[in-house]
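User: Please predict the structure of the protein below. I'd like the answer in structure-token form so I can feed it into my own downstream comparison script.

Assistant: Understood. Taking the following sequence of 726 residues as input:
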Amino acid sequence: MGDFPSHLVTAPARPRSGRFKATVIGVFVFGLCLLLAGGTAAPALTSPAFLISGVREIPSPPQGTSWAPSPRTADGLRMVASTDGQEFQLHTAGGDRTFLPGVDLGDTTPGHLPGKGAISAAQYRAWFAAMGWLGLRVVRIYEIHPPAFYEQLAAWNQANPDRPLYLVQGVRLPDETYVKKRNLFDKPFTDAFRRELRAAAQAVTGELTRDATFGQVGGAWTTDVTPWLAGWIIGREIDPGAAAASDRRNASVPRFTGRYFRNTPKSTPTERWLAARMNDLAGYVARHGVSQPIAFVNWPTTDPLRHPQEPLPQEDLLPIDANHVLPTADWPAGTFASYHAYPFYPDFLRHEPDLLDYEYEGHADPYAGYLADLRRHHATMPTLITEFGVPSSIGSAHNAPLGRSQGDHSEQAAMRINADLLRMIKDQGLGGGFVFSWTDEWHRYTWNTAGRQDWTRRQLWHDPLTNEQYFGLLAMDADGAPDAADQQLLDSDGWPARKVTARVDEEYLHLEAELADSAPGSMMVMFDVLPAVTGTPMIGSGDRRPDAVFALNLIGHDGQAYLRSQLDPVKLDFSVPASKRGSAPAGWNVFELVVNRAITVPRTGVRLPVELQNAGRLIHGSWDPEDDEADSRALWELDGNHLAVRVPWAMLGFADPSAHRVGVPKNGKLTTQVSPGVTVSFTASGTDQVVGQVRWSNWNRPYYSERLKQGAANLRDAALVATGGG
């Protein structure tokens, strides 16, 4: 086999910091969260603390005027929130609040799929306390949560009357059958959604009892949280192709005029269906003598603006306009425009001249321009960005202007960007910003890694290459089985290493090595995950045919991950010309992710090339969350003769490490083979050293611990500024 690139073998020495630099770091003790919440830790919570980087002492809760609800009454309906022109007004004892910093909360934890009711009461208690510390004033949920959510929310708010956490309740579509049938007006689909709207109205008032079904929690809801219910957001992002077909099919459906919501004359069939569902919900809610602002989920793909430079037609196919769905005089709380809007997608953010020329804080900022366009369009109602943020993942799925890509951010960088975006949303005159999301969600997938994974067991392991799993403010760190001891792989007088230990968890394979004196300037850490394939290229001076390699420059502190060509998963995504791939020896590929396929812009004929991320660039440094200078993307660190390496399972070719399954692409499709374990070898200066084989037991239950991510204090500062100091 040929040599790996020379810059990984020789490089000038430069200063490096120690492995764990001594720092003074504030620790927001988990017990303090529970003390504030009035509870004790449950066994499911394995973390002893929320670690918050950069804080020198345990901070006091945000101070300021009271946020206690001070509802108004109109037409016999009580409102804790309402809309007035472009203002969203939360009525509190300290006055009307017109900007709401919030967070989106899913309904699951590692090892579980949504709809299983996996979050414990103790977790809710601790999470609400941490949200309050961060200055977040709203928690938005997408569907009915288990009764414990509403019980603990009410308990937290009653214990903290001047600093309550307000709720925006969501109601998910029942399924995706409208996409298959190309018909939003399909009666079984519509009837199922109406039932869920009614159930949600009963859940928030404490009047719901139902059995659990697939994807739907059951129980008895007995807690009324309407004193803190600030609004509703129904549905999810609408599929543009299915909705466009539905509009053609239902073109004769008349404009809707209900008691609480109506359509304007220019409304489309999709907007008429949405108005009818919002009217349904308002009717269920009004029976309890309350009114809250109601909106539907929208996103840039179906926004009402035109984007002539958007490369993908489906991203500018169908406009859905909240201006065409309006409340009547009988719904005094009003409505608002709700958008899931991120700075990295769709691509019109990279191509529209007006957006590229928009100035914010002295420089061009297309995302700020897009926010301004949304507010300008919705001139008679508030606009809220109810999902925004960037993930703290190694892998990315899309490039973006100003470095706000869909991944490849450290925790500190992601939190800094989220804080900047929250301030921007406030500065552009919008009514609120809800960061996505509260926790890292292991079950999530993304387009450029989903084809590489066994989707039936994705929730059992945590993949740093899948950006969708790392949007959380709360890290859900893999811990590994508590009874799994470190494995001694090597204890000898050998070279280049004398001692090597290994351990595995649900996120990484970890190696700790003590190198011999006179350590080499570069070294390859090699991994065999499947039996050798005859005829495949060898590496080093022996008969070594590894499947993955970490090539480390121990002097220059850089490195590169490679995967054997037979296991390279890029071929499962899109066709990528060899000329576009990173430089690698014959039979090998740089570990890369496709972040944009090659496309032709329909309106201009301009050909845009494929874009790839070198996700296998091996960052050197500490990943200890207690180290102020840590980089959560770092995968190796050399401190003296001590070498620490952690390898994401995907970089070893695994499609499911919990079942030892390695992905083997065949004819464009994923097949899997069972790995007997990972054999580790070192190669340096022509010397091969077999270290040993790492083994582990299959797992069906993951173990994890929780902590606030590094840099979370940046978001806290932005939230407090946005609300005038608390």
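That's the full token string. The longest helix spans residues 187-204.
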